[in-house]
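[step 3/7] fold_predict: job queued, chain A
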Amino acid sequence: MAKLRSFRDLYVNELKDLYSAENQILKALPKMAQAASSSQLQQGFNNHLEQTRGHVDRLDRIFDRLGAKPTGKKCKGVEGLIEEAKEEMMENMEPDVMDADLIVAAQKVEHYEMAGYGSARTHAHLLGEHEAAQLLQQTLDEEGETDKRLTQLAESVINREALNQGENGSTRAR
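[step 4/7] structure written:
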């Protein structure tokens, strides 16, 4: 790992972490959509896939302005969360329980990203990188909205179906 000699180095390092995270998420979301049995959850994952492409584009714009390369760092936090989700997708779960578990996995990633984007936005402001701060805030807002949509889907439909499935052992018709 490169030595962080300045606050700017810390900022660029955080951006690289986010860039790596977003690219790992781009690979994971189609698998999560495929593992979901709820059409609403599948659509949510597919929508977030498109949104994530926009997140990567914003980060590319920030790196261009900084004259820095976005590569060279692997986000081990998201790597671990995705690995955990992969292991759980291999479990023999009832479909509705799997959907509830996928939401948990997705929200863990969203919360990681929100922490990273919030910190990077604050660092950008302090460094006078106000346009970057606006781009980072836009992504932070989108990550927060995704988290809220996942919560709403979990609380209104998915968790109830998983609970009912577990109580009576039956699977709902699709």
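[step 5/7] annotate
The chain has a mean pLDDT of 93.
Residues 26 and 50 are 9 Å apart (CA to CA).
exit 0
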